[in-house]
Amino acid sequence: MHPIAFQLGSFTIHWYGVMIALAFLVGLWTATHRARRENIPGEKITDVVLWLIAGSIIGARLVYVTTYWKDEFADQPLSEIFKIWHGGLVYYGGLIGAILTGYIYLRWKKVPLWKMADVLAPSIALGNVFGRIGCLLNGCCFGRACSLPWAISFPADNPLRPPTYPVHPTEIYDALDNFLLYLLLAWLFRHKKFDGQVFATYLIGYAVTRTIMEYFRGDYPPDHIHYNLTPGELVSIPIFIAGLSLAAVLARRAEPKRG
Which residue, 110, 148, 114, 127, is CA-closest to 49? Predict the structure, then answer.
């Protein structure tokens, strides 16, 4: 549970970056296999994933820097904003960024939007499994203090200074939640009733699991809690509503017309 994987001279490899790279590679591989069921060429997946990577990193970093500007960046050189290998990517910021860039790209290239969204949705959940493992190794997104047998403690020499007392392993909780969500979405993909159903279910599932996980999180400064809700809980509300609304609208569109 230390952020540095290994060093080659002055070149440092961070676990967080390794896990994020694995997340995208595994996501790309699984999405390419699912694309065959929708008759979408594999190269279309590769193209859109490159856009999703760019959009997710920009969105995740933008939300993190905005949220923690006063705590971490106000007194630092501007170059610190771009050092994502130190950690500091907010998942829901990345999700929003990826959705926006993916939407623009798919409309531009005239690729079926909801078919592609269904292909990608399970891979997003699976990729987040690796992302949360990266958080665990990095020492971020840690949990509240607890005395349960499976509580974890971070080493004192971790430069991010996570707590050294026993805490909930929220990163592991979230990784398991996302793996279960991946299994559900992969099953639903083979049994879906309309295009967009898998993606809408992902939005709903993410909002629910994120809200549950926020209860165990202990890394938010007190001034980031508003109306007794964490930033993750606040963002989960519109994501949940969006998922329900999208499912309702797309299901209605898919109903056979009568008369």
Answer: 127
* CA gap 26, 45 in Å, rounded: 13
101 CB-near residues (< 8 Å, 6+ apart): 51, 52, 54, 55, 56
- Output the CA–CA distances (angstroms, integers) from residue 150 to 34, 84, 129, in the order listed: 36, 30, 19
* DSSP labels, 128-158: HHHHHHHHHHHT-S-B-B---TT-B---TT-
For 130-144, b where at least 16 C-beta lie within 10 A, e where not — what string?
bbbbbbbbbbbbbbe
For residues 37 and 229, what is the distance between their CA atoms, to the nearest angstrom? Answer: 41
| Closest C-alpha to 16, from 132, 126, 138 | 138
Q: Per residue in 48-105, pLDDT tens?
A: 888 888 888 888 888 777 777 776 666 766 666 766 655 567 777 888 888 888 888 8
